[in-house]
């Protein structure tokens, strides 16, 4: 637990499922306010928010309809100390990102931490990848990150306040991955963007005494048990093959990645870290194929 996180506000993209959901839980457990962005999983988003709010539990929102405004209104009317709200938005668009920022300002008075977590992967031999599938992956995994980070830097500068951007990259920001070319390129580029922003921004203004700072960092996970891997891990051979590539001998847990997000969100814990990426991959990135002197 990090004492400086209590009362801070985070926006987490793609937070209804998997790693985003785990980060939302961890941040809420830390006493933060969280805007839970979902794209298409309203039921999961509302159930998660309801767990942390006193009211609106069991609110009927798992029929796939966008009832997030009604959910938030009900929660606010009936609940005390509302700390989790749900907001539908497509983070590939400027409007979607603005909607999330506006929600954080309206409900919680501002935003301190922005987690660009949403991502998609589509497998295909590279010579068969359609332009549409290529564009979709670059759009969510890279352009969405660019829009979110750019807008948060503007928000920090315009309001003279600190900002902490955390990007969910991947071990495929440094390991090429056959049949996942667009995904791999998007993650290499997302981490390159983090490095660039870390070198370009730091203190917000010369007279802030270094107190208002912009930090931008990435997390680069290996194989973690989430919906993105559901199909692959349901196949026993593929699952065992994945595990055999990991020196620690197991896939990672969501909470393990969420604890890196909490570390990066806390200025107390990581205030002097920016422009970098933290690998959390059980050793996968170090090429277990070379482990026994082969090569
Ligand atoms: P997931 O599939 O559960 O999460 C992805 C989330 O992004 C989903 O909730 C999805 O609805 C959302 N999303 C997709 N397009 C969106 C859009 N246009 N606007 C808003 N939200 C959108 O899978 P997981 O694993 O939780 O993925 C989260 C992030 O972690 C992704 O960026 C992924 O690339 C990254 N990652 C995952 C690893 C793993 O092994 N699970 C390892 C390395 C990175
Ligand atoms: C992918 C996962 C994969 C992991 C390790 C992540 O970026 O999203 O599907 O298991 O990398 O290869």
Give a verbal description of the structure:
By secondary structure, the protein is of the alpha/beta class. It has a domain at 3-39 and 89-224 and 253-284: 3-Layer(aba) Sandwich (Rossmann fold). Helices cover 43% and strands 13% of the residues. The protein has ten helices and seven strands. The protein has a seven-stranded parallel beta sheet, with helices on both faces. Strand 4, helix 5 (131-159) and strand 5 form a beta-alpha-beta unit. Helix 4 (94-108) runs parallel beside helix 5 (131-159) and helix 5 (131-159) packs parallel to helix 6 (181-200). The longest helix is centred in the middle third of the chain and has 29 residues, at 131-159. The mean pLDDT is 92. Bound molecules: 1,4-dihydronicotinamide adenine dinucleotide and beta-D-glucopyranose. The site of 1,4-dihydronicotinamide adenine dinucleotide has 28 residues, from helix 1.
